[in-house]
Amino acid sequence: MSNSPLYYAKILLFGEYGIISNSNALSIPFSSFYGSFGFITKGAETPEQIESNRHLAEYAKYLQTLEINDEFFTKFDFERLNRHIIEGLYFNSSIPQGFGVGSSGALVAAVYDTYAINKIDPDTTLSQENLPLLKKQLAIMESYFHGKSSGMDPLICYLKIPVLLSSSNNLNPIQLPESGNSSAAIFLINSGVPGKTQSMVSIFMEKMKNEGFRRLLKNQFIKYNDACIDAFLKGEIKVFFKNLKKLSSWVLTHFTPMIPENLVELWEKGLATNEYYLKLCGSGGGGFVLGFAPDYEKAYKTLSPYNPQIIFRL
Question: Can you list the GO cellular component terms from the UniProt entry (predicted)?
Answer without folding.
Answer: cytosol
